[in-house]
Amino acid sequence: MSSNVLTTDSMSKPRRVRVLRAPTFSPLSLVGNLRTLWQYRDLLLTLTMHRIKVRYKQSVLGIAWAILQPLSLMLIYTLIFSFIAKVPTGDTPYAIFAYAALLPWTYFATSVGNATNSLVSHSELVTKVYFPREILPLSYVIAALCDFLIASSVMAGLMIHYHVSVTINVLYCVPIILVLTLFIGATTLILSATQVRFRDIGVAVPLLLQLWMFATPVVYPLSAVPERFRALYVLNPMVGTIENFRRTVLQGLAPDFYTLGLSAAVSVVLLLVAYVYFKHVEATVADLV
Amino acid sequence: MIDLKLNHVSKRYRLRREVEGDASQHVLLRKLQSLRRRSEEFWAVRDVTFEVERGEALGIIGHNGAGKSTILKLLSNITAPTTGEITINGRLSALIEVGSGFHPELTGRENIFLNGSILGMRRREIAKKFDSIVDFAGVRQFIDTPVKRYSSGMYVRLGFSIAAHLDPDILLLDEVLAVGDAAFQAKCLRRITELKEAGTTIVFISHDLGAVERLCDRVVLMRRGEIAASGETRAVIAEYQRASADLNAPEQKNEKEALSDRKAKINAVGFYDAEGHELVAAETGGPLIARINYLAHEAVEDAVFELFFYTGNRELLCHLSTEFDARRLDLSAGAGIAEFSCAELGLKPVIYYADATIKQRGALDDLDWQRNCATLRVDPGKMGRGQFYMPHEWRVTQRGGRGERISETSVVNLLDALDEDRATVEIKPS
Fold first, then answer.
1. CB-hemisphere CA count at 13 Å for B326?
2. Mean pLDDT along residues B144-148
3. Does B415 map to a domain?
């Protein structure tokens, strides 16, 4: 046995004092939690890369799946809503109209679909090692964001094909995707934490996503929604993000700041509530999974 | 300097019972009721307070369900206490179930980064220690192979190696030493000893009293979620062994009354080493002498003494008896000692509870039957793995050689391996 002398300089390192107690709803603990999350940022990165690698490692098509998913949905919806039922999309071809919305929608649906079960499916880790548990759902969200970026290349191809001209307003995509990411983060935190206790959530999610998609202007434009329902309709943060994503990318217009602002406000508030709720569940998650 | 402090820590679990309910009710209605109903409460840990000083090694012992593993989960922040608070000064790492968190599809290299990050290491830190981790585990050749192709030994070694490179201020140890072969266990123990000498604070939660005694400066004994005793290692372990014997003998009183018209009784059972000194712990493969002190009220003809060894969950592992001997044993009235002596103890290293009986050959009832009248702790001596030790010799015959070398040395002793790398046997080709 060769001698493996490991250097241990535990005496000189600055030490951090932590106090563990029953979870409380205090702003101070929120700051502490964010600090711990920051310390574990490398785990978030590693797990995200792990998600991407594992997903495509033993599949033939590999990373192409990231493109195939929204693309095939686009083809189906184009067939249904453009040839069979005629959905008015102005002068935008339906294919690109649908794809521009399916792109952010797939980001949302993939994240929610994968992250909901993340705490339960990692029970062997959750019951043995401590790390901020929000890393599990969030790693799925970031992996889905990568898929989104890859699938965006098809969007560029479609735009060239349909001769859609790009304006400077396309840069609004960045804050729109940021708002969308905040909302996805909030949704996945709530669903994954609730799934620990009520496994019904996992079963309900596919149905929920289906309904949600039809409550969001993905296959139809926002203008198709009757005026009197619209005030309520736009409270769904997916409306403000998806409609504005399409608007800035395809029409080259500045976003509608009312709907986008509303989406941002709802997302931020929801994310705060979701994080506090998640951390509360986290304290006993190992006893339940 | 206090590194770890538990201040009146309690942990409550809620046990949710399936509600029997009225079968005529709708199934959904019953489900809803069961959700509303306050489930049964169970305090796994109740009002536990202790401190661990910097550089100290604290052992936590107790029976299954005494709250040991809950304490471990609380300390490692896997679950939060219901009341009370835990103050941790420094980086705490738990060395529990090495290899949890490996992904079979990923290569050894990828898993080192994944597992290291899960355990709280920064990527830069892992990269820096990468070579050392690989060498310690001895898997360099397979580092770019998916770990699903690893042997279980390689898997465990890699898992331990990552965990061993955490450089924690406070190290939590579970039953990690119970995995792997003797050489690997020795390596684990050596690394832990190294960390301890470097000033790492250690909390060791284990059933292996021998290991606790070797490693720990102080021991806390848990019973039903509370601290039953704490203090100097040997004293608390002795207390635990005594208490275990008491705990296992609830029906002793009734049993005694049933044997009312007995001619003889057993007073005590004790264990001694070859020199006749009372034993704290025997060793597998080592000598053992067991003595039964009896008192015969009148002469007993054709008497038989028996000694039974049970594990903690009343599994009978071994039985010593005078019955199988052709010699006839007649006892005259008065006190005496029956002695069993074993040259090489075959029992595996755990704690045993002994029953002693005295009866007459062929009789249905025992004259006396003392349950749990003694506790025997067996430490790993000549035993690495398996269920029992078999006394054996060995020899190596080399073809073409002029002479044969026969050695008495047989088993790689864990403790020896710890002290001096490994017991090496030299075979010289002639």
1. 0
2. 88
3. no
Write out pLDDT tens, residues A206-248. 999 999 999 999 989 888 889 888 889 999 999 999 999 999 9
Give pTM, 2 decimals.
0.72
Does the structure show a pLDDT above 90 at B156?
no
Q: How far apart are CA A118 and CA A123, in angstroms?
A: 9
A4 part of a folded domain: no
SS3 content of chain A, % helix, strand, coil (to 5): 75, 0, 25
* Residue B39 forms contact with A (CB below 8 Å): no
Tens of pLDDT along B10-27? 998 877 665 555 556 666
* Confidence band for A184, pLDDT divided at 50, 70 and 90: very high
Query: Which residues make Cβ contacts (< 8 Å) with residue A213, sequence separation at least 6?
Result: A105, A109, A219
Q: How far apart are CA A65 and CA A140, in angstroms?
A: 16
**Do A45 and B123 count as a contact with CB atoms less than 8 A apart?**
yes
Q: Point out the residue among A4, A22, A286 whose CB comes nearest to the CB of B132.
A: A4
Domain extent for A280: 27-288
B197-214: average pLDDT = 86
B99 phi and psi angles, rounded to 5 deg: 95, -10
Residues 6+ apart with CB under 8 A from B255: B369, B371
Asked whether residue A74 is assigned to any structural domain, the reply reads yes
Which of A1, A11, A124 is opposite residue B422, by nearest beta carbon? Answer: A1
Q: Residue A9 domain-assigned?
A: no
A68-72, A75-79, B300-304, B399-403: segment of lowest average pLDDT: B399-403
Residues B191 and B120 in one domain: yes
Tell me which of B209, B243, B277 is where a domain ends. Answer: B243
Residue B326 CB coordination number (10 Å): 4
B181 and B274 part of one domain: no
Same domain, B64 and B167: yes
Pairing of strands B282-283, B405-407: unpaired
A199 in B contact zone (CB under 8 Å)? no
Buried b (16+ CB within 10 A) or exposed e, A250-283: bbeeebbeebbebbbebbeebbeebbbbbbbbbb
**Domain count within chain B:** 2
Q: Domain residues for B148?
A: 2-243
In a domain, A5, yes or no: no
Domain count, chain A: 1
B104 touches chain A (CB under 8 A): no
Residue B147 has pLDDT above 90, yes or no: no
